[in-house]
Amino acid sequence: MAGALPVGNPAPADGRLPRDLPIDPATDLGVYLHVPFCRVRCGYCDFNTYTSDELRGARQDEYADVLLREVALARDVLAEAGALRPAQTVFFGGGTPTLLPAGDLARMLEGVRGAFGIADGAETTVEANPDTVTPAVAEELARAGVTRMSVGMQSAVPHVLAALDRTHTPSNVRTAVEAGRSVGLDVSVDLIYGAPGESIDDWRASLEAALALEPDHISAYALIIEDGTKLARQIRRGEVPAPDDDLQADMYELADSMLADAGFAWYEVSNWARGDGRRSRHNLAYWRGADWWGFGPGAHSHVAGLRWWNVKHPAAYAQRLAAGESPAAGRERPDAAAQQLERVLLHSRIREGLAIDALPDDARRAVAGLIADGLIEPGAALRGRIVLTLRGRLLADAVVRALTD
Predict the structure, then answer these.
(1) What pLDDT does residue 43 have?
(2) pLDDT-derived band of residue 211, with 50, 70 and 90 as boundaries?
(3) Which residues belong to any copy of the Radical SAM core domain (predicted)?
């Protein structure tokens, strides 16, 4: 299970927003629906997810009804604050959303539609484990209004999948992708690189396999070792090697080259799309600082600079809602300095970049050095934007430090 929740101020039991919150009704609203269930826990994962023997008082077959209580609460809270808007994006994440029956996901989506409305042309994404997607599941999701499926491929190499504790077979990835495409869904595949024992040739094979699926979008994430995970314990005991930073850098460069050659363009450090219309609009909303309400145990939300997060365990989450209370465990309003740091962290990661005139004077003086070091694009800087070069994407943290120290 994930680590501790953030430390913040107590959240009110009724979930009401502060009266002085500067809400802009023109800001897009996104909806995140967290499904915290997995068949097995992957060794690298620290997300707020639970296997069947960890639920202790919560039931998967009741989850959709429980979450819909929070949807109803959110509608009342946002309506009272004058912040009720149709959802521009909806994202089912987890966990494994497709571990629930497709009908439950459809019912949750219909609840969002009834509470907020869903904008015409909205993007609605479901994360999917390849083992849980059949043509019938994909068809039911598409009928419900899902437009996009994100398939957790991770690797095409069996020993790498085993190192990550992934249970699916590479052939199931193709089955899932074809099921989604057959009903008109956009399809993304997620990859992880740098697993114990993974070579550059293994990674090349996974990239080739992913490209052969002809997806619309590919995410490629460097393996990060999180405290408290099985993999962290294995590394600490010397059972498997820690990720090699230099090898991961080589893997990233290989991915960027192969994806570019196949017609994909990067739009965020770890994400590539086959055309602007195939980008993840939901994730872009996070990086751009839009509003979103996260439903489910441990989910985080943001409206007009106010952030809050729900209690973590599904049983505690259900108990709060059964009592007519908000499941929020705490909340905070970051000050101007914290908001500026977050703006630099997020906007510098995306292709559209960060506006230089939004930086304080001392940060602007760092721009020339970043250009000289080959970390940001000179032409974009002349147009008033900080856009990372390939080298800058590999050293994104150094760019952020230079602009915020």
Answers:
(1) 85
(2) very high
(3) 23-265
Residues in the chain: 405
Average pLDDT, the chain: 95
**What residue numbers bound the domain in which 281 lies?**
29-288
Report whether pLDDT(352) > 90.
Answer: yes
Q: Are residues 244 and 117 in the same domain?
A: yes
CATH of residue 283: 3.20.20.70
Report how far residue 192's alpha carbon sits from residue 231's, in angstroms, rounded to the nearest whole number: 14
Task: Report how far residue 390's alpha carbon sits from residue 405's, in angstroms, rounded to the nearest whole number.
Answer: 22
Residue 123 structure tokens: 């993007």
344: burial class by Cβ within 10 Å (0-12, 13-18, 19+)? buried
Name the amino acid, one letter, at 312. K
pLDDT in the model for residue 50: 92
CA distances from 202 to 42, 190, 197, 255 (A): 20, 16, 9, 12
Residue 238 maps to a domain:
yes
Do residues 127 and 79 make contact, with C-beta atoms less than 8 angstroms apart? no
* pLDDT score, position 7: 77
Indicate whether 262 and 397 sit together in one domain. no
User: Which residues partner with 308 through β-bridges?
Assistant: 301, 331
